[in-house]
Design a protein that fits this description.
By secondary structure, the chain is an alpha+beta fold. The chain has one domain: Aminopeptidase. The longest helix has 15 residues.
C-alpha cells in the first residue's frame, strides 16, 4: 500500500468513500460533477500546513482508503500538539482485509513524526464495530465528547 497526500483529482473518490456507509448516505451528496462545496473544502484543507488529507492506494495505484489528520497546537501539555484523525474510510470491497489497521499504524507513526503527544479521534456511538476496532488498536475512551450542530 502507498500513502500519499491527496490531490484535487482524488476528491471525487474520497467523497464517494465517505458517502458510502449508513451515516454518510444521510449527510453527504456524492454525484458527478461534485458539488463545489467539496472542492472548496479540499482547497482549504490542502492550503493548511496543519491538515493532511491522505489517500491510500493499492499495488495498482487504485485509491482504496482515505483519512484526514489534523495537527492542533495547544498551550496545554507545555505547548503540545495533538493529532486528530477523522474521516477514515476504506472502499467497501476492501473492508475486512486489515487495511484499516495498517492505515492506523501509518497514522500513529505520522503523528509521532509531527511531534504530537497524542492521537485522538471521535466516532459516532452508532458505530459499535468501529468503537471495538479502535479499542483493539489501543485507543481508550478517556473523555466524554459533546457536539452542538448548527443546522
Amino acid at each position: 500500500m502507498k500513502f500519499r497526500k491527496a490531490i484535487k483529482n482524488d476528491v471525487d473518490k474520497i467523497v464517494e468513500m465517505i458517502a458510502d456507509d449508513e451515516l454518510g448516505t444521510t449527510r453527504e451528496n456524492f454525484q458527478i460533477p461534485l458539488p463545489s462545496e467539496y472542492l472548496v473544502a479540499f482547497e482549504n484543507i490542502d492550503s493548511d500546513q496543519n491538515q493532511e488529507l491522505i489517500v491510500v492506494e493499492n499495488e495498482n495505484s487504485v485509491i482504496i482508503g482515505t483519512m484526514q489528520l489534523s495537527f492542533i497546537q495547544y498551550l496545554t501539555y507545555r505547548g503540545g500538539i495533538r493529532a486528530q484523525i477523522e474521516a477514515v474510510r476504506i472502499r467497501k470491497d476492501q473492508r475486512g482485509l486489515g487495511i484499516g489497521k495498517t492505515m492506523f499504524e501509518w497514522a500513529i507513526e505520522r503523528a509521532k513524526e509531527r511531534n504530537a503527544h497524542l492521537l485522538q479521534l471521535t466516532t459516532d456511538k452508532k458505530r459499535p464495530k468501529a468503537i471495538k476496532f479502535y479499542e483493539d488498536l489501543g485507543f481508550k475512551a478517556t473523555h466524554e465528547g459533546m457536539k452542538m450542530h448548527f443546522k
